[in-house]
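Re: duplicated header lines in exported structure tokens

Our pipeline writes sequence and tokens for each protein into one text file. With two proteins the header for the second block appears twice in some exports. Here is an export where it did not happen, for reference. First protein block:
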Amino acid sequence: MSSSADFGRRRILALTTIAVGGAGIAAASVPFLKSWNPSAKAKAASVPVEVNISKLEPGQLIKVMWRGRPVWVVKRPQAMLDALAQHEELLRDPQSVEPQQPKYAQNPWRSIKPEIFVAIGICTHLGCSPNYQPDSFSEHVDQVIAGFFCPCHGSGFDMAGRVFQGVPAPLNLVVPPHKFVDDNLLVIGVDQEPA
């Protein structure tokens, strides 16, 4: 047998071995790569949440869950909105400079619509859930009627979720991405499209 025939046979065997080995590695990798994908439960937990706000009364707070966290939706009456500008000197970040909200909510109300406030109901200190105090918050901050008070370590937030100075919480409450489909339907977990 000639050496050129041996060389050709070796070449075919080498190519066959590479092809079979590559197919085996690819087949073995599929289950491994699939294990990196989030589970169906995780996918379900991260989907946007629709909230019907048609029956939300002025001053009322409703809570929904999104990504395993409580999200508050509050319908602020005009008196609450007017009061937001009256205590800015007491706040740590009154202009919402820290990136705790989407750009479209970086305004005095920290919301798309002034009357509808959406925030994740978790204190930015150690993750407790503050209490909504629509008419008794002045027990914690003099002359501020409404706000959110965290009973764990005494942090306080105004009705735009802005943190007061001198409390343990370092940042304003987080405003999640959200958008309005119409006047009655709010979607949490999806960004408002630019106007």
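Second protein block, exported in the same file:
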Amino acid sequence: MNTPFQSDRSIVKPRSEFEKSLDTSFIWLTRVFALAIVAVLLWIAIEVAIEATPAIREFGARFLAESTWNPVNNIYGVLPQVYGTLVSSFLGLLISVPIGVGTAILLSENWLPLSIRTVLVFLVELLAAIPSVVYGIWGIFVLIPPLTALGRWLNSSFGWLPIFSTVPTGPGMFPAGIILGIMTLPIITAISRDALISVPSSLRQAAFGLGATRWETIFKVILPAAFSGIVSAVMLALGRAMGETMAVTMLIGNSNRISPSLFAPANTISSLLANQFAEASGLQVSALMYAALILFVLTLIVNVLAELIVLRVKRL
């Protein structure tokens, strides 16, 4: 008489040579695609670095510390653009991370009927399909007027604070940060929701079995288990915010000055490239390539830090 284990083994058929060949081909195909992605990435970096070489030789590290961008005298520096890129991106994440993670928790728990959750998920993901230029137009005609009124009240009431020290006149860091928060919201929500849903239900049941409340289960079990996925979502959103061009160019004011005030006009590297690349020539093209290379390196550093954070969390 066969044991259940022996019976199961008799059911499993050995793989044919064709199936083994198909698996091996698929593995090698995925390896080729992965190496192709790395090759394309290196190709882009090398091409940008080659085009930026004249500006690198001319300005060196001074390019990062110089605040002047003067094509007439061939004096270039991207300190205001680096500052504007980092501040507007982090301002956007400051808005989108709590809202996005909170929305992901709402959509992954059974608080709402399935039909309503399905509609909300569709609407959140639809935000990612709106072209950035539409966000820019919406920001100019809908977002800036009330923000300007709010900014004038904050300036008159709390103008002694550096972040409110400028009288808002329209475009500036504040509306650009808000629009980046809206544009990165679907990325954080969708990926965080997938990470929360992927947490094994046995963890939730074990927490309930030990007497934990629903909120204790969410904050002490579900969120820590999905932390790596949520961090990946935030870092991906940060990369999206740092590289956003059209909407930010239309809303940030494009001023090459550094100001601590959120209401002052500013600039980003992407906006600088969008505004000047079409009419640039000579050393200015090389300087713009140098700025693009800096943006590339900043994005790479952000992604490496994200991977290090995820690895460190997995070891705990």
